[in-house]
Structures are given as structure tokens and as C-alpha cells.
Amino acid sequence: MRKTDEKESQFIELTDRYKDVIGRVCCTYMSASASFDDLYQEVLINIWQGMDGFRGEAKISTWIYRTAINTCITWHRKNKKHSSSNISRIEDLVNDPIDPAADNTLAEQLQYLRNLISQLGAIDRAIVTMWLDECPYDEIAAVTGLSQTNVGVRLHRIKQRLAQMTE
Q1: Residue 66 included in any domain
Q2: CA distance 156 to 167
Q3: CATH number at residue 4
Q4: Rounded distance between C-alpha atoms, residue 71 and residue 73, angstroms
């Protein structure tokens, strides 16, 4: 088997195994100026390009998270200058915001939560997304570059901020 065929096979297996993780990260960072598909494609390109450099010093899931989050953050930084406005409110993100007090379906409640999370800073979005994916603090710390203690403190503050946003 040629090296390219082997890499392609590993890429397909890797992206299939972690497609939900990549999708959740892209959902967290998508906006009016960054569609889910654009972000997802950029993440896949960066995973492909980075596969040869992956040394196995971290868990593969940590590397996937780091690649996906960094890709999304970088995409926004590069494309911010092309965006006519900076999105900062829920109303700018969705046409019809969902009232959390209403009797909504689970999908609507999850969409509302995603909209709230999208208002957080880039690192806070990464922390809460990984926490919702039940990643341990050490993995969140490895991806974000924070200490485990700092991850716990920031997560506590993020939860408080999200609670205040729903009031």
C-alpha cells in the first residue's frame, strides 16, 4: 500500500470516528460570517495537513479538539476584517430566539444553549464545549493551555455567566 493510500485510509477512519466532536466544535463557532460547512471543511483540511506532524505525545482526541478549536478561532480572526459587523447578540445569530421558559423541545433548548455559548469568548467556548462533551479537566487544560485548576475556575464562572444570560 502506498504511503498516500495509507494516510487517506487513516484520515477517513479518524474523521469518521471524531466527526461528532468536530461537528460540535464547528457548531459552537459558526456565525453569520462562518457557516458550519466552511468551518468543518477548514478543520478537515487542517487535520489532513497536520496528520504527518502528529507525534502521539497527546491523546488523538486532544489533538482533534485542539485542531478544530484553533482552526475555528483562526478562521474568525482571518475573516473578521471581511465581516461588516461583529456579532454579539443572540438576535444577530438566529432569526427567532427561543424563550428558555417556554415548553420547547430538546432540540430547541440545545439550540438556545448553543446560541448562548456562541456569545462567550473563544477560550470559554472551547472550555464549555469540551465540558459538555464530558472531557476531563486535564484534556481541556491540554487543549486550551490552561492549568486544570484554572479550567475549573473558568468553568464555574462560565456557568454563572450563562445562568445570568438566561435571566
Answers
A1: yes
A2: 17
A3: 1.10.1740.10
A4: 6
Q: How many domains does the chain have?
A: 1
In a domain, 57, yes or no: yes
List, for residues 22-78, the tens digit of each pLDDT value.
998 998 888 777 788 999 999 999 999 999 888 888 889 999 999 999 998 888 888
Three-state secondary structure string covering 66-110: HHHHHHHHHHHHHHHHHCCCCCCCHHHHCCCCCCCCCCCCHHHHH
Q: Is 126 within a domain?
A: no
What residues contact 76, with CB distance under 8 A and at least 6 apart?
29, 31, 33, 34, 122
Cβ-based neighbour number of residue 135 at 10 Å:
20
Domain range spanning residue 68?
A: 1-84
CB 99 within 8 A of CB 116: no
Who contacts 33 (Cβ-Cβ below 8 Å, separation ≥6)? 76, 79, 80, 82, 83, 87
